[in-house]
Amino acid sequence: MLEPLKISAQEDTPSVVLDKENQVFEIGHRSLPENAIAFYEPILNWLTEYSKDPLPKTIFNFKLEYFNTASAKQLAKVLLLLQELAKNHDVLIRWHYLKDDTDMHASGIRFSKLLKVPFEFIEM
Amino acid sequence: MTDNLSLDFVKQLFFLMQDHHLGYIYKGIFTQEVTDTILSLTENKLEKQEESSKLKKRVYNILVEALQNVTRHQASDVKTDPQHDSLFLIQKMNNRYVITTGNIAPTQNIPYLQSLIDKINTLNKDELKEYYKTILEEGSISDKGGAGLGLIDIARKAGNKLIYKFVPLNGDLSYFYLCTVPVLEDDVPKGNVGIAEFHFVEKIHEILNKENLSIINNGPFNQESLLTLLNSLEGQMIGSISHKKKVFYIVVEMLQNIIKHGYIPSEYDQHAVPGIFLLGFAGNFYRILTGNFIENEQLISLKKKIDKVNELTKEEIDDFYNESLFNFEGSNSKKTGLGMIDIRLKSGFPVQYDILPINNHYSFLSLQSLIAVE
């Protein structure tokens, strides 16, 4: 079984839980690291590994309060991997946003329009 | 709002602050939140400077007193003339902290205030203590309560003379600048910061009034100082949550742009990028401004990038954002970065810039982004 990847939130980096055994896939809090590429690298590697032998259904939760544009590109990479996975498996993106946070809601809508993977929007 | 607007004052403020070792300026209404933010910002700076705990405590205590003094004496009308706003500046010069505050005072009170400060400045530590008691017992100072006591207390805590200047505004009101340089007992008081030193404070104050600026942070910038600045903005901005958030988005992109692309001239500390951040108002807009050095060889491509996002319609920017979002080429590509596109998108207004040459090698770049106050 693939080892879970757990990262706790810092002031400028998000919390991450990627746990196949317990079926938890989640990125939360805020993301504005200086080096977004380095931060997201292990996440992308984990997902690539996971995609080789995934669960029948993957529900991925984005619970972000804020992300900068450098993180946006890395989130796009995460979502591209999930889109790839969705070709042969059941994948659902749950995009959570804080009530009244129109920017975060709009970011989710933007991704959902650009990708072929089902999105569900949930107000936090 | 046009693109070819002069942002020369950004450069002017940067060099004034740089020359006088000014890290931070606030001009506006002093609320509890604003005071708390200034205290934590300064505490943060003091921690990093590895000062003796005695000096830290002393600076901190004076700050508390000086900020209370300003809060107590600020114009009571909230919708006041920005010229009447209170002011706070902190400098670090030759291992000393210089704390300057400013607030309006009725011109009729000035002879009293002046004689009070002159008297305070003649007294030694024990005499100040006695004088404090006398004034406390008389309890007759001002209708706002304890104007004199605040000043005596600042003098006692500073262990140094108070430096002041009054500038008449109009018939009824004057502006009162008060400057304190805390010293320790075993330190020889360096009294002569002199009235002349107020020239630059007045110069800066004049620019702040003219441009309606409220918060100024003189870098240097790195990820750590960016986070400190972001935290401080939360306590100091007025407006709704969604507004604060928009400002937050734009500030992050503008400052991370500086951290990534700003040039560090050799005479500056190479560990962080020199630059300046300003927040102010222009009519119904927030104005967010930054200034930093940039290498001349980057100017042409930078101008192209900004001009390009400025020319696009709202729909076109949206498409441009989507295209850039999924473009994973190196960040040094010739393409406009997602950051600049995002600033333009969130602001809804063109990104204004002004490039002022410094020498053959580098220039000073000022950027302004506007956000409409709904």
Task: Tell me what you see in this structure.
The complex is a heterodimer of chains A (124) and B (374). Chain A contains three helices and six strands; from the N terminus they run E-E-E-H-E-H-E-H-E. By secondary structure, chain A is of the alpha/beta class. Chain A has a six-stranded mixed beta sheet, covered by helices on one side. Chain B is of the alpha+beta class and 374 residues long. Chain B folds into two domains: 192 residues, 2-Layer Sandwich (Heat Shock Protein 90), CATH 3.30.565.10; 151 residues, Heat Shock Protein 90 (2-Layer Sandwich), CATH 3.30.565. Chain B has twelve helices and ten strands. In chain B, strands 4-5-3-2-1-6-7-8-10-9 form a ten-stranded antiparallel beta sheet, sandwiched between helices. The longest helix of chain B is centred in the first third of the chain and has 21 residues. The model of chain B has no long low-confidence stretch (mean pLDDT 87). At the A-B interface, helix 2 and helix 3 of A face helix 9, helix 11 and helix 12 of B.
